[in-house]
């Protein structure tokens, strides 16, 4: 351990000023890295301002981690090969990747050593870029500049150019092209929100964005290699095997469908690894063969992919049954396990559970605990060979009955099961428990961060105990608070009953909160990730009402979907004063305020549909602004208003159709100004309009009560309301063809998830005034079935 004096003299020795040295010394890890980097430098090196800064930066990003071959970087900096922080970063990335196999030649190649980009070349590239994009730049002017800057910086030919060359060149050339800024370039502060968004964008290029991965529980996690070991000598092999990269795992039991709560576990494990350029396993914890079924494996894999994550490897706890068995024998040979023949009841008693089921009684070792190693070993082999029936013998760990933690009261390691395994068939008669398997497989897979939810907090002790007893690398288990969605039912058993008794359409019924259901309903995966990110990760449980989740989805869709005119409950309208062939093309933006979505056209014709609730027979209602016998109304984007003439009703008194007049005779040269504009969907064979929607499924909450317990008597009879007559403008076809329809600004988010073209659930749109919809998987050919994802407004009390 170097003293502060040693370090001060070492750091001053390379020419760092005293205040700088003091600042560096405040951070132990950075000091430690800087120390080792300086010691890697040739003793006769001459340090200058730039090399000091580069090495200090390097130390700051290493933060205590020592890379094999890091001296190649230090030497590259000092001999002038690595000149910029960009190059040092590339060199570091390379060294991290290949570790001990690094060569100077490769490193220099990876970091662009020797590639000189002159100012003239930069200017040339900038000019070419501006020429290629001239039209757009002239149209949109200065607000494009940050984007131009980013794109030019990313040009392959400029990769190794000095970044300081870009800005003056771009500024100069833009000024030549556009002239000085004028009133067209004033950024309108439309809303405060928008303003803060632009700022965010600017700062994102400078400093890393703050996300759930950079702060809170995940931000505070240890660096790879910093977790303590009972046997520190095991760390070296671990670091070699992982190349110092984060390794996590998502380890579901394949015995059910995942639900919304699991999306957090998926995002924490896969996302943390991705954020740190690490890897994440999808590991099926298949040690309970009786509960497993192939559809669960498939569903889990599908859902992980849907949320935008790709497992580094897909593994199964059963892949390791042989290794686990060998470790169990080692545990026995170390005198730390015994075969126990107690009944479940006797085991409970021994753990201090009293006859009445309450804990706190006296704890007693069972009579088998002191069996010899030889006897235990031979009985364990008998267990393996099928000499015992289920319940007759178990292998227990010899832990510490005096511990205050129940996780140390001689947990069960292996039990006899009479069940074939989906993957290993009838090979095994004994199966390891979760407590035995989990930590050891983490160790075998060299997991650097074993992230689980806080109900496993007490397991951390047994986790470490077992790794240490069999002398294997001890991964770090760390516990975060799970996501608890309230106001619905997530329990497997309760949902199974609803499915089995046909109260819902299946495990993926859009009213449920399994991930399959949420997907079918049309919720974008990116919306889920963004939502979880905003909640952040702490060690305590996050309780969220279903309605709050839905309002986050609504917000996300509001910003990211195109709009269409859609009439849920139509009445036909005939314009008496227009000819049958009348056709007036009306242009409507797909999303006002977002030019990127573009416009669409809708033919205004003699016959069209309006929403039944947009007409009232009562002319006296002063609060009703839409069509009445005495009040004209506007149709969205149609130039003139329509005025009521007459209506037709059926025998029961229902309105069949309304006759109106198009008020296209301006009064004083001006069209009439209506109180409001309503939606309309035209009838036009030429445009194949309207599209008729066979079923529009409007979902409401599944249960009546706020905190349902899953009782079918509590089901909301209106949880699914189906409309069979809805009509929609023909541009739905365009939306479907372009789906998933994603605008560029949405792709910029760290939490954007690319979805599959051709899936039904990605065909989302906003039906003006009614809600957000997507195609249900029951749609086939011309038969359109729509799911309402969420309503436009929060309908909860
Ligand atoms: C180094 O090279 C050897 C042989 O090619 C390879 O097995 C090993 O995985 C490499 N090490 C790293 C850290 O890439
Ligand atoms: C963000 O970018 C805009 C547009 O270029 C610029 O006007 C503004 O000053 C920048 N804001 C910050 C905080 O950098
Ligand atoms: C884990 O690391 C050890 C070295 O400690 C190595 O032998 C083993 O192959 C690694 N396991 C995996 C799955 O990479
Ligand atoms: C618990 O501790 C007591 C006294 O320290 C010891 O005599 C006893 O054997 C321990 N019991 C077990 C089951 O380890
Ligand atoms: C999770 O939510 C349920 C209500 O649905 C509540 O009863 C329970 O206490 C919550 N769990 C935690 C750990 O907060
Ligand atoms: C569904 O209910 C039937 C009859 O009650 C029962 O036999 C069956 O096991 C149940 N299935 C499931 C998956 O719960």
UniProtKB/TrEMBL annotation:
Record's GO cellular component terms: cytosol
Domain Glutaminyl-tRNA synthetase class Ib non-specific RNA-binding: 5-163, 166-238
Keywords (A to Z) from UniProt: Aminoacyl-tRNA synthetase, ATP-binding, Ligase, Nucleotide-binding, Protein biosynthesis
GO BP term, pick one: glutaminyl-tRNA aminoacylation
Domain Glutamyl/glutaminyl-tRNA synthetase class Ib anti-codon binding as annotated: residue spans: 562-663
One Pfam family matching this protein: tRNA_synt_1c_R2
Domain Glutamyl/glutaminyl-tRNA synthetase class Ib catalytic: 246-558
Record-linked PANTHER family: GLUTAMINE--TRNA LIGASE, GLUTAMINE-TRNA LIGASE
Entry similarity comment: Belongs to the class-I aminoacyl-tRNA synthetase family.
Descriptive protein name: glutamine--tRNA ligase
Organism: Eremothecium sinecaudum
């Amino acid at each position: 351990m170097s003293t502060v004096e040693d370090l001060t003299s070492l750091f001053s020795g390379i020419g760092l000023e005293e205040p700088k040295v003091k600042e560096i010394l405040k951070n132990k890890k950075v000091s430690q890295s800087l120390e080792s980097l300086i010691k890697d430098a040739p003793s006769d090196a001459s340090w200058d301002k730039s090399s000091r800064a580069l090495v200090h930066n390097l130390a700051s990003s290493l933060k205590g981690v020592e890379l094999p071959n890091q001296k190649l970087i230090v030497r590259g900096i000092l001999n002038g090969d690595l000149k910029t922080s960009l190059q040092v970063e590339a060199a570091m990335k390379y060294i991290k990747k290949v570790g001990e196999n690094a060569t100077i030649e490769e490193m220099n190649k990876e970091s662009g050593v020797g590639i000189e980009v002159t100012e003239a070349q930069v200017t040339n590239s900038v000019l070419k870029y501006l020429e290629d994009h001239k039209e757009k730049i002239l149209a949109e002017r200065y607000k494009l500049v940050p984007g131009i800057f980013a794109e030019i910086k990313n040009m392959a030919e400029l990769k190794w150019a000095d970044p300081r060359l870009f800005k003056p060149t771009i500024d100069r050339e833009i000024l030549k092209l556009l002239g000085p800024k004028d009133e067209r370039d004033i950024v309108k502060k439309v809303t405060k929100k928008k303003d803060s968004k632009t700022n965010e964008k600017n700062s994102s290029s400078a400093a890393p964005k703050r996300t759930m991965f950079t702060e809170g529980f995940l931000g505070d996690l240890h660096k790879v290699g910093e977790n303590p070991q009972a046997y520190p000598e095991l760390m070296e092999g671990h670091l070699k095997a992982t190349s110092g990269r984060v390794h996590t795992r998502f380890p579901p039991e394949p015995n059910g469908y995942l639900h919304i709560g699991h999306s957090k576990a998926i995002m924490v494990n896969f996302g943390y690894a991705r954020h740190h350029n690490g890897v994440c396993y999808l590991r099926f914890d298949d040690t309970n063969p009786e509960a497993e079924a192939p559809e669960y494996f498939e569903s889990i894999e599908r859902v992980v992919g849907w949320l935008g994550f790709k497992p580094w490897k897909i593994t199964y706890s059963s892949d390791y049954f042989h290794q686990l068995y060998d470790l169990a024998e080692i545990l026995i040979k170390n005198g730390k396990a015994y075969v126990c023949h107690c009944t479940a009841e006797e085991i409970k008693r021994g753990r201090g559970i009293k006859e009445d089921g309450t804990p706190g009684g006296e704890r007693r070792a069972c009579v088998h605990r002191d069996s010899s190693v030889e006897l235990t070993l031979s009985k364990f082999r008998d267990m393996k060979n099928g000499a015992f029936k289920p319940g007759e013998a178990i292998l227990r760990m010899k832990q510490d009955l005096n511990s205050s933690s129940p996780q140390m009261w001689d947990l069960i390691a292996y039990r006899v099961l009479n069940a074939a395994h989906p993957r290993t068939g009838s090979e095994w008669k004994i199966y390891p428990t979760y407590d035995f398997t989990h930590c050891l497989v983490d160790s075998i897979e060299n997991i650097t961060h074993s992230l689980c939810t806080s109900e496993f907090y007490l397991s951390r002790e047994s986790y470490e105990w077992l790794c240490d007893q069999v002398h294997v690398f001890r991964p770090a288990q760390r516990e975060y608070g799970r996501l608890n969605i309230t106001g619905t039912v997530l329990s497997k058993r309760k949902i199974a009953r609803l499915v089995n008794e046909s109260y819902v359409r299946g495990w993926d019924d859009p009213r449920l909160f399994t991930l399959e259901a949420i997907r079918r309903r049309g919720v974008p995966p990116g919306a889920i990730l963004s939502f979880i990110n905003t909640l952040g990760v702490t060690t305590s449980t996050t309780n969220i009402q279903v309605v709050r989740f839905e309002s986050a989805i609504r917000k996300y869709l509001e910003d990211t979907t195109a709009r269409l005119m859609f009439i849920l409950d139509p009445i036909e309208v005939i314009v008496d004063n227009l000819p049958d062939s009348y056709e007036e093309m009306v242009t409507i933006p797909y999303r006002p305020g977002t030019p990127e979505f573009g416009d669409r056209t809708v033919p205004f014709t003699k016959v069209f549909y309006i929403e039944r609730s947009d007409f009232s027979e009562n002319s006296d209602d002063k609060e009703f602004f839409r069509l009445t016998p005495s009040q004209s109304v506007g149709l969205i984007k149609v130039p003139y208003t329509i005025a009521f003439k007459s209506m037709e009703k059926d025998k029961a008194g229902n309105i069949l159709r309304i006759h109106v007049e198009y008020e296209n005779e301006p009064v004083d040269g001006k069209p009439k100004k209506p109180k409001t504009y309503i939606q309309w969907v035209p009838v036009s064979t030429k445009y194949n309009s309207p599209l008729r929607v066979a079923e529009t499924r409007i979902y409401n909450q599944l249960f009546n009560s706020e905190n349902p317990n899953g009782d079918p008597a509590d089901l909301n009879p209106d949880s699914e309301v189906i409309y069979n007559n809805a009509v929609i403008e023909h541009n739905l076809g365009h939306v479907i063809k372009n789906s998933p329809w994603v605008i560029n600004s949405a792709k910029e988010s760290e939490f954007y998830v690319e979805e599959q073209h051709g899936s039904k659930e990605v065909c989302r749109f906003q039906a003006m005034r009614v809600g957000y919809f997507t195609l249900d998987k029951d749609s086939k050919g011309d038969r359109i079935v729509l799911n309402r994802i969420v309503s436009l407004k929060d309908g909860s009390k």
